[in-house]
Amino acid sequence: MEAFALSAVLIALAEIGDKSQLIALALAARFRRRLAVAGGIALAALASHALAGVFGVWLASHVADDVLRIVIATGFFAMAVWMLWPEAEGTEASPETPGLARSALLATLVLFFMAELGDKTQLATVGLAARFEDASLAVIGGSALGMTLVNVPVIWLGHHYAARLPVRLLHRLSAALFAVLGLLTLWLG
């Protein structure tokens, strides 16, 4: 349960103000099919974070414990710094992808999955899955839930309410949590 809850909270905090929210907003405006877009977000989050979780477990089973602990802690410290780095202005993704324009669910699934490849939340999931190797399914589920919980409301609430969130404060809180997790990884092993 600890791995699930920690993954959900960290990923949700890391996702606030991310480009994925712009993608969710653009897709909701383009297709006007909220449930299909929400379903695509949830499926893409699950697929993306499952891939990351599998890699994290592989990493944990193929790298020496001392090296892995340092790699994971370094990854968490890097995530803390990354959370303090502002998102690029004007970062937008176009929902106009040839062959996907007919299916809101499929378009959302593909665009979200592609947008998350190598993203900070996917990399965080790799580290969390390696850290909680025995609870990797909980990490995957928590990460996917955290991403979905942050992005789906954007579909209904739109940019108006999302703009009112204290994004900088939430990113700082997320950075602090990643730094603490890095320290705990080094300290507790």
Question: What are the SSEs and their pairings?
Answer:
Blueprint: H1 2-15, H2 19-31, H3 34-62, H4 65-84, H5 104-116, H6 120-131, H7 136-162, H8 167-188
Helix pairs in contact: 1-6, 1-7, 2-3, 2-5, 2-7, 3-5, 3-6, 3-7, 4-6, 4-8, 6-7
Can you give me a brief rundown of this structure?
The protein has 189 residues and is mostly helical. Helices cover 79% and strands 0% of the residues.
Shape: globular
Which consecutive residue ranges, at least 5 long each, have pLDDT under 50?
88-99
What pattern of helices and strands is seen along the backbone?
Answer: HHHHHHHH
Structural Rg:
16 Å
Measured between the Cα atoms of the first and last residue, the distance is 19 Å
Number of strands: 0
Structural class: mainly alpha
Mind describing the biggest β-sheet? none
Estimated helix fraction = over 70%
How much of the residues is beta strand, in percent? under 5%
Report the average pLDDT across residues. 79
What's the number of helices?
A: 8
Based on the model shown, name its key terms.
8 helices, mainly alpha
Description:
With 189 residues, the chain is an all-alpha fold. The protein is built from 8 helices and no strands. The longest helix has 29 residues. The chain is globular. About 6% of the residues have low confidence.
